[in-house]
Design a protein that fits this description.
The chain has about 150 residues and is an alpha+beta fold. Helices cover about 40% and strands about 15% of the residues.
Length: about 150
Amino acid sequence: MTTETHEPGALLRSAGLRVTAPRLAVLDVVDSRPHIAAEDVATRVRERLGAVSTQTVYDALRVCTTAGLMRRIEPAGSPARYERRVGDNHHHLVCRHCGRIEDVDCAVGSPPCLTASDDHGFEIDEAEVVFWGVCPECRTSEALLAAD
């Protein structure tokens, strides 16, 4: 299941959150730019609203993530990224060269997509998988450089 696109104010209210201009802007920015870093969210929010503190943006990201309105992913060696696709236990492809991130649907269709060999007594409800490789654009660039 993905987060359905509803009016952002209604989403915030349904999660029991106050509707504020920074929260609305953060939801809109993350909705329009999946896998966006917090610093880039802050830049785009400031372009829309003017003076907004970095702390306000980080607070809005944290609150919306905690409320389940967005997801925070943390690929190794990369700043945390945010996306609005939540609730479906999908995974990610990350390019080793440019950092591009793409969604990959769950391999078996229902969470968790993988079964741990030993659950150590945990009740597992989610699996996070990151596939690493080289995107088509970077492979083309590498091929062009090798040809020179």
